[in-house]
Design a protein that fits this description.
The protein has 176 residues and is an alpha+beta fold. A hairpin with a 4-residue loop joins strand 6 and strand 7. Helices cover 24% and strands 35% of the residues. The protein contains three helices and seven strands; from the N terminus they run H-H-E-E-E-E-E-E-E-H. Helix 2 runs antiparallel to helix 3. The chain is globular. The longest helix is centred in the first third of the chain and has 14 residues.
């Protein structure tokens, strides 16, 4: 049974689309300006949060822990759910990973998971794919908040989404 679960997990990873993360010129843009803009919003709502930018990923978190939970995956009827470890927020926390990817989502194949909010066992998971058609790039955003969101958390999500919808203006101009 355990071998079957591991095999299914590996198969799922192999079947995920892997978009190109390096720009057309072989270089990836700096995400430092975008990170600073995101960090301003995060610190305003979560003053003790930590954030980072590493290569093509931006992340931030506050008051998080590891949960053993059902993984989001397509399974055949009658099969046991896949269980795994996921980092998520505690009652007053937040967790987010943002990945930069090349490619215009208007012309690229769709991702396996649709945009939207999913109530997981221990937290809400927001999935977004902001797109910049002009610069031919997009973001993959996974934001996790407590199951019960309050007014300040709703305001935070609105501000963050507003910034992410115009993320291209924080990227360096392409050299031609």
């Amino acid at each position: 049974m355990q071998k079957a679960m591991i095999l299914n997990f590996i198969l799922c990873l192999l079947l995920l689309p892997v978009p190109n993360v390096v720009g057309q010129d072989g270089k990836s843009p700096s995400l430092k300006k975008l990170h600073r803009a995101i960090d301003e919003i995060v610190v305003r709502h979560y003053p003790k949060a930590t954030s980072h930018v590493f290569e093509q990923t931006i992340g931030f978190e506050f008051a998080t822990r590891i949960y053993v939970t059902r993984l989001v995956s397509k399974r055949l009827p009658g099969m046991d759910p896949l269980i795994g470890c996921e980092r998520g927020p505690m009652d007053n926390g937040v967790w987010c990973d943002i990945w930069y990817r090349t490619g215009d989502l208007e012309t690229e194949p769709a991702y396996a998971r649709a945009e939207g909010v999913t109530n997981r066992e221990f937290f809400q998971e927001h999935i977004y794919y902001p797109n910049d058609r002009q610069k031919k790039c997009h973001l993959m955003v996974v934001l996790r908040l407590p199951l019960k969101s309050d007014g300040p958390q709703t305001k935070f999500v609105e501000e963050l989404r507003g910034l992410l919808n115009q993320f291209g203006k924080y990227l360096p101009a392409k050299d031609n």
